[in-house]
Amino acid sequence: MLARVRVAIRHKQQATQQEPQEHIFTNGNLKIDYDAGCVYVDNNIVHLTAIEYKLLCLLAQNIGKVLTHNHIKKEIWNDENGCDLQLSLRVFVTNLRKKLNASDYIITHIGIGYRMLNIN
User: Fold this and answer.
1) Residue 37: inside a domain
2) Which of 23, 30, 57, 102 is buried deepest, with most CB atoms within 10 A?
């Protein structure tokens, strides 16, 4: 039993060492400091609402991937019952684009969802 515990601990330590500990996301002139919960554009802090911040982090963590409206609703609002939040999502994305001063980051896939481009 003790040997199994040691093996489990060793596997956990190896998995932890292999996962990069990214606390700061950078994409072009956009920077997200996950530890501080702050967003910067051109080293100027950008004030976001809680939902805008969650949305930006979700897109950043899935950079280059198209996230469907349903996936975003599930992740941000924990919407399991299919409530229609597509209009609200559109408003949040529009506000986020304005605050970031760049519509280049977030691309709309009409009828599908949104994707963050890798600007680096």
Assistant:
1) no
2) 30
Query: Is residue 30 a contact partner of residue 100, using CB atoms and an 8 Å limit?
Result: yes
Pick from 29, 62, 63, 61: nearest CA to 46? 29
* Alpha carbon of residue 52 to chain centroid: 10
Q: Any bridge partners for residue 68, and if so which?
A: 113
Contact by Cβ (8 Å): 100, 52: no
The token pair at 14 is 């190896």
Give the contacts of 26 (CB within 8 A, at least 6 positions apart).
32, 120
Residues 42-94 pLDDT 10s: 999 999 999 999 999 999 999 999 999 989 988 888 865 555 666 788 899 99
Give the Cβ contact number of residue 100 at 10 Å. 20
pTM score: 0.76
Domain residue limits at 75: 46-116
The CATH number of residue 93's host domain is 1.10.10.10
The total number of structural domains in the chain stands at 1
